[in-house]
């Protein structure tokens, strides 16, 4: 039985709770069906553990923004830290460090533009034939964040690179799956040989790769002259050495850099993968007009490219890359939309429900850049645009991601034309479910624009 004034939901079965109400492949449709039946705030039981689903702008903003700290916890599933001093100190440090490395400034742009040269080379090698952009975009996104963290990049066919990307993509599929949901709620399943346990093997593999890189930094760094995020962290650890309450340590560094590397890879690349479907001649005209003879774009150009901006934002809306955000936990007894939510309740902010919420968009279905343009053709961002979530736990890499999406889209559309191969049949837009939604693997034909 649900506690008094707890959000409503379907009746439960012993042991299973509501698991039988959810499809193992893709529970998003079930969540939408339940929203229609029970409203924007409803509850489900994963085994015996309650969870609350938040749908729509109003409920999500009330919880994640207005009552941000009360909803800022994390369940102890995979890697991201729960709410507390460790999360606070590390989040503050990471935001400042990323900013100092030029988030929004020249040097971060240089890193992205530098990586773009390798993407361009890959695409040029595929002119006239077809290419699977999945691997290329994953490698590029991984390299960009890898350079920020560790100061290095890898060739796209390098074994280490392939192994990291394999672990990340596999974990992205396991992380929000039903087993992951159960993992937090039914401790005894942790000892069973379940598919979800593979996620921990993958984390161990990635740590096994990253720890020697960190050790190498310890040997080669010059204190006070950081080359990358890891150097900055080691400097900070040194500074806090005598502080008994510090949460900075080498163990945390290896986990934290893994969090950032993972969070910055599968998200950006899956958004770009959806983007490759959406290129348009109108974008290309705007890009040509603004860049004129210049050989590369810069992030500032976005202010003169309202249509491109609208396309990129619409592509994020449609891509719905992180449909259920990352799960939250309540840090104290609280309320949302008049319902009572006890401390320690699993919270799922259903971002998918906001990105396609009736009444929030000019066009809810299909791909319409007009959702982000006013009558004068200026770029506008509706309140319901929340692919990075909202509140104190919102995406830490939003700045980097927005810069990547803009520079990569503009540079590639300026140079190439992407065509759906005639013999490939109709594109299948059904995404593959996970913490990130992934388009089914596909191939694109690539042409140089000048040549066409
Ligand atoms: C298009 C690309 C991206 C999308 C759509 C995206 C989306 C999200 C979402 C929805 C969350 C969950 C927020 C919440 O729990 O309320 C999140 C968290 C996070 N993201 Fe991103 N993200 C993207 C790119 C990146 C990049 C490039 C980085 C790397 C710097 C990154 C680092 C993180 C981290 C560290 C968190 C956890 C924040 C915390 O727990 O405090 N993300 N992201």
UniProtKB/TrEMBL annotation:
Listed cofactors: heme
Tagged with keyword Signal: yes
Keywords, alphabetical: Heme, Iron, Membrane, Metal-binding, Monooxygenase, Oxidoreductase, Signal
GO biological process: organic acid metabolic process; xenobiotic metabolic process
Binding site for heme: 395
Molecular-function annotations in GO: heme binding; iron ion binding; oxidoreductase activity, acting on paired donors, with incorporation or reduction of molecular oxygen, reduced flavin or flavoprotein as one donor, and incorporation of one atom of oxygen
Pfam families given in the database record: p450 (PF00067)
GO cellular component: cytoplasm; membrane
Location relative to the cell: Membrane
InterPro entries: Cyt_P450, Cyt_P450_CS, Cyt_P450_E_grp-I, Cyt_P450_sf, Cytochrome_P450_fam2
Similarity-based family: Belongs to the cytochrome P450 family.
Name under which the protein is recorded: Cytochrome P450
Provenance organism: Neogobius melanostomus
């Amino acid at each position: 039985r649900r506690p008094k004034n707890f959000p409503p939901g379907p009746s439960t079965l012993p042991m299973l709770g509501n698991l039988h109400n959810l499809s193992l492949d893709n529970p998003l449709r079930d969540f939408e069906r339940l929203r229609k039946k029970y409203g924007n705030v409803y509850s489900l039981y994963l085994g015996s553990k309650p969870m609350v689903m938040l749908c729509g702008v109003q409920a999500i903003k009330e919880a994640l923004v207005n009552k941000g700290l009360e909803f800022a916890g994390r369940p102890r599933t995979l890697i991201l830290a729960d709410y507390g001093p460790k999360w606070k100190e590390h989040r503050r440090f990471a935001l400042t460090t990323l900013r100092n490395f030029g988030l929004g400034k020249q040097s971060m742009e240089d890193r992205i533009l530098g990586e773009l040269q390798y993407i361009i080379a890959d695409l040029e090698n595929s002119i006239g034939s077809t290419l699977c952009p999945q691997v290329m975009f994953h490698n590029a996104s991984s390299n960009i964040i890898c350079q920020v963290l560790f100061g290095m990049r890898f060739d796209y066919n390098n074994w280490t690179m392939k192994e990291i990307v394999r672990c990340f993509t596999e974990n992205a599929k396991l992380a929000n799956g039903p087993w992951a949901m159960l993992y937090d709620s039914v401790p005894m399943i942790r000892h069973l040989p379940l598919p979800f346990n593979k996620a921990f093997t993958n984390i161990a593999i990635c740590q096994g790769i990253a720890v020697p890189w960190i050790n190498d930094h310890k040997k080669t760094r010059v204190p006070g002259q950081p080359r990358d995020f890891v150097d900055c962290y080691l400097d900070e650890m040194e500074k806090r050495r005598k502080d008994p309450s510090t949460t900075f340590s080498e163990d945390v560094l290896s986990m934290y850099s893994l969090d950032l590397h993972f969070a910055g890879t599968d998200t950006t690349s899956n958004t770009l993968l959806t983007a490759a479907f959406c290129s348009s001649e109108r974008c290309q005209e705007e890009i040509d007009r603004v860049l004129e003879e210049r050989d590369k774009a810069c992030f500032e150009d976005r202010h003169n490219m309202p249509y491109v901006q609208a396309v990129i934002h619409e592509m994020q809306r449609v891509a719905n890359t992180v449909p259920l955000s990352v799960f939250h936990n309540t840090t104290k007894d609280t309320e949302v939309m008049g319902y009572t939510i006890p401390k320690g309740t699993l919270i799922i902010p259903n971002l998918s429900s906001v990105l396609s919420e009736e009444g929030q968009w000019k066009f809810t279905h299909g791909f319409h850049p007009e959702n982000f343009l006013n009558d004068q053709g200026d770029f506008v961002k509706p309140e319901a645009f929340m692919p990075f979530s909202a509140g104190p736990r919102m995406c830490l890499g939003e700045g980097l991601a927005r810069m990547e999406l803009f520079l990569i889209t503009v540079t590639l559309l300026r140079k190439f034309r992407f065509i759906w191969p005639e013999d490939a049949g109709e594109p299948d837009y059904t995404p593959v479910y996970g913490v990130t939604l992934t388009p089914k693997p596909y191939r694109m034909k690539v042409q140089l624009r000048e040549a066409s």
